[in-house]
Structure prediction request, 151 residues.
Amino acid sequence: MALLFQPFQSTLANKNGKKQFFPKVVRVATVNTSQIAKEVAAYSSLSTGDVKNTIDNLITVMGQHLQSSESVTLDGLGTFRMVMRAKGNGVDTADEVSASQATLTVRFVPASTRNANGTVATRSMVTGVKCVRFDKQNAGGEEDVATDPTI
Prediction:
């Protein structure tokens, strides 16, 4: 398994007037709840239906807590919370402020861990990921060029 990436050119020029290139993740598929349920069931004594039901109920309960102005933290995964994003149509006084001035969205912050040296690592789910450049892999899916082992 490897995380695939490809180069993309920024639409914005840097201070020297050049549009530089950066890595961008290539998504090759979308995994749905049913597939996740099958895979989780393979690790447990629960059936696929039991796991799917649990995931569906988790989403329902999380939504209820988020809509009650509570944040939801799932250990090892991260924290979900509701945020309002202003649409740019401000008003002159605090009394005039209304929810219609913003859109609601859910913000996710990945779980963090403490390293041995006391620093905080917020990339706990991506530790040890092998990155492979999409356009430089061979037919067997192996990489043709070295990747950064520190990712």
Summary: Residues 48-66 form the longest helix (19 residues). The two ends are 14 Å apart (CA to CA). The helical segments are 33-42, 48-66.
